[in-house]
Amino acid sequence: MRLAAQAILPAVILFAAWAWTDRLVDGGAADHAARTRPAETVYSVTAVDAEIATNRATLRAFGEVVALESAELRVASPGRVVEVHPDLAVGGMVDEGATLVRIDPFAYSGALREARAQLKEAEAAAREAESRIAMGRSDLARAEEQLTLATRDLDRATTLRSGTITDRAVDERRLLVSQRQQSVDQARYSLEGEEARLDQQRAQIDRLEWTVEEAERALEDTVLAAPFRGIVLNETAALGRIFQANDVAVTLVRADGLEVRFVLSDERYGRLIAGKSLIGAKIAVAWLIGDEPLTYTAVVNRIGAKVASDTGGVDVYARLELPPGALPRPGAFVEVAVPDRPHPQSARVPTTALYGDHVFVIGDDDRLERIPVTVLARDGSEAIVRGPLKPGDQIVTTRLAEAGDGLKVRRVDLDDTGEARREPS
């Protein structure tokens, strides 16, 4: 029995040692496997919260400021320049009604005085003719009265001829009637002549009145006044210079009548007019001068009559709404921003959030979910998209080469997008 126990005891000890050693080996391997297993990568990303609303892009183009109205002030009354407006210089601003150039009015004032004097003489002659006509009518009336009396006397003499009246007395009365008739005829002819001369005098008065008006116009034309508040585009006036008739002295463009002309491609023009007219649309205009561009508002008021052959687009004209201050000049190169057509039920996202036809949002357990979208328009560094997005969805804006469903991410507060950072969990 003792011998059997002595024989079994070493075997038990060896088995126990083997089991303990095997356990140690298995436990170490498990710990090593646990220590060498790779940790899941978590990517630091930026995101924007989706806002579902009506969005519209801004179409940008370059254009030119053009004058809606201009005026060439030409000299109608030639002569020597005696006055020039102090602000009359290229690029200067002049107010409506301001005297820009004055021609020596001496000769024109004299011509006006002479015309008025001749008119007064003609009017006096007309009044004299009217007096003669009145006298002639009076003479005619008296002559007719005397003819009537002589005729009655002749009739009585003829009736009494068989009595006490002799033939000689009757003949004398007939001669008197004839003389009275001649006096009536002369008075009538004289009156008709005076009336004709009065008509001629009145015609002369009409001509002289026109001469006076012409002289007044010529005197007024010695002053070249600004027809509107404008910018001096060109001027050739100087004190002492002699202008000939029809010489251009000043060229003005209306300061508050400027337009912006720009070109829209057929595709852009078609998008803008889809469903509505472009006329009346407000646009933003930036005049790129100095450190800070000057911005204005303009209203589209007309469209070009045909497609421009040199640009292949449509000319669009917008009337500038100009506040007080620096005014753009005709020919200025400007940038225009035209609101595109609206897109309801859409979201605005940075272009970095686009992965072709889808975006990624941060879903449950901070893992990415693929959301299909349709790009409706692009607006600079942003895009307007539509898809099954919900308000508040966190749209990832960081570019991820490994982006895909289920990718673990962590949103961080960054001002700009960049490469994703990997962080072990």
Layout of strands and helices, then pairs:
Elements: H1 2-36, E1 41-45, E2 47-49, E3 53-55, E4 58-67, E5 70-74, E6 79-84, E7 93-94, E8 99-103, H2 106-159, H3 167-220, E9 223-225, E10 230-235, E11 242-243, E12 248-254, E13 258-265, H4 266-273, E14 282-287, E15 294-307, E16 313-321, E17 333-339, E18 343-350, E19 358-362, E20 368-372, E21 374-379, E22 382-386, E23 394-396, E24 409-411, E25 421-424
Parallel strand pairs: 1-24
Antiparallel strand pairs: 1-25, 2-23, 3-18, 4-13, 4-17, 5-12, 6-8, 6-11, 7-10, 8-9, 10-12, 13-16, 14-15, 14-17, 15-16, 18-22, 19-20, 21-22
Rounded average pLDDT:
83
Structural class: alpha+beta
End-to-end Cα distance: 63 Å
How many helical elements? 4
Global geometry: rod-shaped
Strands across the major sheet, in which order? 4-13-16-15-14-17
Helix and strand pattern: HEEEEEEEEHHEEEEEHEEEEEEEEEEEE
Q: Low-confidence parts lasting 5 or more residues at pLDDT below 50?
A: 415-420
CATH architecture grouping of the largest domain: Orthogonal Bundle
Count of folded domains:
4
